[in-house]
Amino acid sequence: MGKALQGQVWRAANRDHGRQFIDEQTIRNVAQNKAKPSLWGRVGEYSNQDSYGRLRPWPRARCACHLGGADFLAMLGTYATLPAIQQAQPWTRVGRLTQSFHWTCGASFWQRLLAGQDQPAAEQEALQAAIRTTLLQEVEAATWVDAANITETIAPRVAAQASAPASQSVQLSNPATGQDSDRKGQAGWADTVLMHGRIFTGDVDRPWCGALAIADGRILLAGDWQQVQERVGPETEVIDLQGRVVIPGLNDAHMHHTPDPMGIRLPLDLEADPFLDELLALLKTAVAESPEGTWIYATLGANLINEPRLDRILLDQLAPAHPVLLLGMTNHTNILNSVAMARLGLDDAVLDPVGGVYERLPGSRRLSGRIHEYASWSPQRCFASMATVEEGVASLQALAADCLRWGITSIQNMTWTPAERYITMLQVAALPIRVRVIRFPPSGHAGRLISDGYGLPRHPGERIEFHGTKWILDGTPIEGGAAVTHAYSGAAAANAMTPLHGIENFSRQEIKHMLQESLQAGEQLLLHAIGDRTLESVLCVLEEFEPQVDWRARALRIEHADGLTPAQLARLPDTGAMVVQNPTHFWFYAGDSGFSSFSGAFRSLAQAGVSVAIGSDGPLNPFLSLFAAIDHPARPGEAMTMEQAVRAYTYGSAVAEGHGADKGRLLPGCVADLAVLSQDIFSVAPEMLPQTCSVLTMVDGQTVYRSAAF
User: Fold this and answer.
1) Mean pLDDT of 23-46
2) Helices (H), 406-468
């Protein structure tokens, strides 16, 4: 966009995307821009091969983890990629590290396009025009309805330039009466009725209905229109679904949202999984274009995680005065330079924590900068603690905005931010979605810090819960850390001097202690276990545990369980444990990647009677996860039906947080959390699923998001 645009005016964008600057010249140019070819139409020209000729692990950019073209471009334009809609923000500009669009698998693809790195100037101009037009359309049409009347945190550079009110609440009214629809149901009347839809209730015996009545935040009646219309009163809001599909609100049972402080994020493309030369070139640029002391941050793909040359010594040569923190995409192996280690309280005298390892330079006690498993917890929590409450609120609100656009009404989060601080951020953010915070304690040299987070209330705020404890029992296959019987092959083992089998972070005796602690505290226990050796330890401890416990009633969770063998699967139902699966991980196990021992058990779990829930643990887009769930690129025989997958993503996830009795299904008495979808996910071609979004999202029977398309 070159020159600074003049005559900026405030326009209220839909509430989930904060406020944007829209320039008057752009408004005048909208008609001209309409004549230009759409960039989205040209996305298919970009190959899903990277610069090294390798196929990306994710589906190609056209259909992977993206909203419709216009919506996704609008989202990118909203979140600081084009600050103030004045110019494309260079990636070297210091900004908030945690931005909501980083939770999509194709984010880097779009960042490169927006930065003009992968296209000639003419195409960049067309892209910028498309973004302008799209943003204008979104601003004029979309609506966020905020029942809690929350206050937005506006970036300081924006707040300094305008004094518009920071929040506004929109009341929906009955189109027939024009009256406000926020009054509670009286005399058996519904507050809201949805009619003429295909409504998936999630109930096994009666999975479908055509209409819903909602009162006092809960489902009053699920049936056909003839039944439900009797609940329509003089103040009932009636929503004609026009044949659209409705599902219970999606519940992401496994994520790791962590607001980070200000800094520079290197634009590494995880889809392309770059090599060391690309990382070093970006790092040099970041150092040259930022003041000393600026945090430089990146997320590494499998190649860089397993690159033995990438250590403190190399990073110090390129960034002697900048703290550099490189996080593996799995967060089980991270790499720091000397300045970062000093900032985060690490020195060469530090002792390995239980369940973790600080690598040392050969022949010395000096830290190499490569840290694994629980050795990462303390420095990463320290880094996360540097984020201000305001930065955390902004990050949470951006995350909630994306959740509502995708019909996610609940999230279960295991954050590296200390629990008390994260809950403070949540209390200030006053989000319209439900957030469960799960204890994610660190460990020290003397043992696990089991007291971490104890004493905090279970219900610290509206729609906020704090309960459950998660422990990491092994690593992941990406870095060869999941404990397996058969040695790794492929990239993870390429630099190993001996056969690589991974490591169990804790002994069986320690796992037994975890179970005992959960019983004593009355807390749910979540165990990350991927490799078959680790899963064998969990099964043996459960089978031998005394006294006998109904772990099913306590919703004992095994996270992932990707290495489960057929023999172990046969034993699992008797333990009562459930599995929280992450379908997007299946792409890593597809093809000849050295992960042949990881089946990604899914359908067979349900067939065996094991309760299954779904979490993202990566790209936030739930319809990308559903695509992987019904396709299962690694083991097609493990694919679920769409009904099974949606049930796992809603009711299964409710069971996984102890709310299966009244959440996750659209049945009388259940909370009225739901999403009206942009397309029929039960009939659309699977490859089109990631383009799905919600056009209307409800939480507690209140409309908290409504798009321009509905």
Assistant:
1) 34
2) 419-429
Within 13 Å and on the Cβ side, how many CA atoms surround 628? Answer: 29
Query: Which of 390, 465, 405 shows the shortest CA–CA distance to 622?
Result: 405
Measure Cα distances from 153 to 23, 402, 429 in Å: 22, 16, 8
Spatial CA neighbour of 586 closest among 603, 562, 565, 568: 562
Average pLDDT estimate for 377-390? 92
> Who has greater pLDDT, 15 or 419?
419
Tokens in use for 128?
Answer: 């910028």
Q: The whole model's pTM is what?
A: 0.78
Q: Are 111 and 66 in contact (CB under 8 A)?
A: no
Question: Could you tell me if 575 and 561 are in contact, meaning their C-beta atoms sit under 8 angstroms apart?
Answer: no
Sign of the alpha-carbon torsion through 509, 515, 518, 519:
negative
Rounded CA gap, 314 and 361, in Å?
12
Is the separation of the CB atoms in 282 and 267 below 8 Å? yes
- Residue in the block written with tokens 């396009």: 113
Residue with tokens 């033995």: 308
Residue 60 reports pLDDT greater than 90: no
3-class SS shares of the chain: helix, strand, coil, % to 5: 35, 20, 50
Sole residue written with tokens 């103040």: 235
Among the residue ranges 140-149, 405-414, 455-464, 497-506, the one predicted with the least confidence is: 140-149
Please say whether the beta carbons of 130 and 77 come within 8 A.
no
pLDDT in tens, 73-128: 444 444 333 333 333 467 777 776 654 333 333 444 433 443 344 444 554 455 44
Task: Region of 707 please: left (phi>0), alpha (psi -120 to 50) or beta.
Answer: beta
pLDDT greater than 60 at residue 44: no
Furthest-apart CA atoms within the chain: distance in Å: 81
Q: Among 379, 398, 378, 303, which Cα is nearest to 336's?
A: 379
Tell me what the pLDDT averaged over the chain comes to: 79
- What is the average pLDDT across 444-450? 94
Average pLDDT rounded to a whole number, residues 511-530: 97
β-strand partners of 699 = 702
Q: Distance from first CA to last CA of the chain, Å, rounded?
A: 32
Closest by CA to 16, choosing from 700, 710, 701, 696, is 696
Interstrand relation of 356-360 and 367-373 (parallel, antiparallel or unpaired):
antiparallel
CA 369 – CA 307 distance, rounded (Å) = 13
Taking each helix axis from N to C terminus, what angle separates 532-544 and 508-521, rounded to the nearest 10 degrees? 60
Q: Give 117-179 as a DSSP string.
A: SSS-HHHHHHHHHHHHHHHHHHHHH-B---TT-PPPPPPHHHHTT----S------B-TTT--
Q: Which of 333, 302, 270 is nearest to 104 (CA)?
A: 270
> What does the block give as tokens for 218?
């809960």
pLDDT(184) > 50: no
Residue 207 confidence (pLDDT) above 90: yes
Kind plus residue range of the DSSP H or E element containing 325: strand 324-328
